[in-house]
Amino acid sequence: MNQKILITGIQRSGTTMLRRMFSHHPDIEFMLHEKHSLTKKGENFKRLLGDFNCGEKNPYWRASQYNRGYMIKYAKKWQETFECHKIIHIVRHPVSVAESNKKKSKTRPKASIKYWKNDVKLVANFISEQEYGLNISYENLVSDQMYFQKVLDFCNLDASSHVVNKIYNSPYRYFDKIEPQRSLDFTEDYSGIDYNSFKNEYCLKI
Fold it and tell me: pTM value?
């Protein structure tokens, strides 16, 4: 099956971790490096399509982050371009995103929270309405292996226990160790967002 899968999510929400998890699946050849933008200029999407057309083994995978409504624009283009496709949109608690951004790039937490409020629900709502789209929770992903099995099922990939166990216990140095305590890395919720309600409305359930 020549299936194309796009991984997307706001910065520091787990797109790289998810991409690495997928790259350890025996049926997947992950191509090139993570792309951090599908925004503003059509050239980015053209490069993405070019990357997908330069290999023999499939399905092909690509990680991407988004900016405001541009992700919806490219998701629609994705749907028009590929007959068989999936989009996985990963979401993470806004304060975890803000704290991670503060450590990684010194971004002010208020700016990260504003970005989350402006963009994440917009994209999640669009993805939830698409047959080929799936919203998933970062917190559920790192705390429950069966959650990833459901994601693999959605993508029509082998979701057997031995495959998932191998992915969650990968010995490779460059693989993000998946640990439950990483699910929430803050002590105070200052976002003003009812994240649990958001997850219940939009994300794949455990």
Answer: 0.81
How would you write the chain as a 3-class SS string?
CCCEEEEECCCCCCHHHHHHHHHCCCCCEECCCCCCCCCCCHHHHHHHHHHHCCCCCCCEEEEECCCCCHHHHHHHHHHHHCCCEEEEEEECCHHHHHHHHHHHHCCCHHHHHHHHHHHHHHHHHHHHCCCCEEEEEHHHHHHCHHHHHHHHHHCCCCCCHHHHHHHHCCCCCCCCCCCHHHCCCCCCCCCCCCHHHHHHHHCCCC
How many CB atoms sit inside 10 A of residue 12's CB? Answer: 22
**Per-residue pLDDT tens over the stretch 123-180:** 888 888 888 889 999 999 998 999 999 999 998 889 999 999 988 887 765 566 677 7
Res 84 pLDDT > 80: no
